Amino acid sequence: MFRRIGVRLESLLKQEKPPVVLILGMRQVGKSTLAVSLGEKLGGYVRFNFDLVGDRQEFLDQDRHALAIFAQKYKDKLVIVDEVQKMPEATAVVKHLFDTYNMKFILTGSSEVKIRKGLGDTMAGRVHEERLYPLSIWEMNVQSGLDFDPRVEFNNYDVNQVNLLKYLVYGSLPHLSNVDFSQYRMYLEDLVNTLVSKDVLEISGTRKTTQVYLLARLLAQQVGQLVNFNELAANTELSRESVYRYIDVFEQMGLIVRAKPISTNEREAISKATKFYFSDLGVRNALIGDFSDWKMRFDRGSLLENAVFVGIKRANDYTGRRADLGFFRSAYGAEIDIVEGVGVEQRLFEVKASDKKTARKKGVEVITLANAQKYLY
To answer: Do the beta carbons of residue 323 and residue 329 sit within 8 Å?
Structure first.
């Protein structure tokens, strides 16, 4: 499967002494598929999945002689370890094999909290980290068999618009291409149930399934809006501290993306507000139970703003472009939906669900359904 980030990772892994590559991202986003694809391009791989107890066995014996045998057995192969957070002690084995035998590794996981805790100082200076997102429109095109040259993507405007409408309602998780359209809703609802009832609770160590699910649903209903943590705590009957903790878990596992306020040099800017967007809109829509067509929806503006924000962030992350991405809102009501800052330079975006012409703000790029595809490519 083609993933835009794969080109950069392949080049990195072909270096004489590449770092250990850590691929993070939400469940079902395609981390393992990307790792296997890279292994095939590099001439061979061996894969371990720590969800399976049997796959953990070769990482249990940390005797240096046993590790020497491991290194000989898998010499010149890329070693892929999925769900590495399920066995934190394995990082010591990875460190020894990496340092002593110059072995190449890709580690994947959907629980960033536990991965970071497991890695600790053990792999300091040895890890290159990337976050994988759901498919962009370019990647959707390639996956559907349309191998478009990204330099001329706008020659395919109609195809891109069809994908955009699908993206806004059902998201763009890779597995959707493997199931019939009639099964999209069931797949996404089952995935949400797994994310909330299994992954979040496993990471956080709590059993407050109903409250955690309600919190996720409330965030889904407030996409692109300023979040009131006290209100979330009251509605979920969780403490404010618990709300912060669970939202942090959602963010660390790749379910949501945080947007912070960015100043546009106006003294009246609100500095403590926060907004959240969902990495995948299919997951978001499953949480609120609404898969209505775009034209029938009351939340079109929120969906489009979510898509554009995540699209810009994905493009920046995949290209290694360091940019602050957030929003601006003043205490007097002035608002800019998305602000992208690189050094002292800023780009300002206003997202509108309607294509009707309105008065434009100076220096602000207006994004509508008609031109949104270029921000999601």
So the answer is: no
Domain around 145: 137-375
The stretch 117-122 carries a mean pLDDT of: 63
The model carries a pTM of 0.92
Residues 273 and 334 in one domain: yes
Evaluate if residue 264 carries a pLDDT over 90.
Answer: no
Is the dihedral angle over the CA atoms 83, 87, 93, 99 positive or is it negative? positive
Q: What is the dihedral of CA 247, 250, 252, 254, to 10 degrees?
A: -140
Task: Assign residue 122 the CATH number of its domain.
Answer: 3.40.50.300
> Which residues lie below 8 Å from residue 64, measured CB to CB, with a gap of 6+?
96
Cα–Cα distance for residue pair 176/191, rounded to 1 Å = 12
267 pLDDT higher than 60: no
Same domain, yes or no: 120 and 170: no
Q: Could you say which of 105, 131, 157 is where a domain stops?
A: 131
Give residue 11's pLDDT.
Answer: 94
Backbone phi, then psi, for 323, in 5-degree steps?
A: -145, 145
| Total structural domains within the chain | 2
Q: What is the tens place of the pLDDT at every residue in 82-106?
A: 988 888 888 889 989 999 999 999 9
Average pLDDT over residues 228-244: 94
Same domain flag for 84 and 181: no
- Of 131, 164, 185, the position where a domain reaches its end is 131
Q: What is the DSSP string of 225-275?
A: S---HHHHHHHHT--HHHHHHHHHHHHHTTSEEEEEE---S-TTB--S--E
Comparing C-alpha atoms, which of 120, 26, 23 is closest to residue 78?
23
Amino acid 131: pLDDT: 94
Q: What confidence tens digit (pLDDT) does each residue in 321-372 have?
A: 989 999 988 767 778 999 998 888 899 999 998 877 666 678 899 999 999 9
Q: How much is the average pLDDT of 171-193? A: 95
> Are residues 144 and 23 part of one domain?
no
d(CA 322, CA 343): 9
Nearest to 282 by CA among 374, 222, 220: 220
- Token digits for 57? 């066995």
pLDDT of res. 337: 95
Q: How far is CA 104 from CA 121, 224, 261, in A?
A: 19, 40, 40
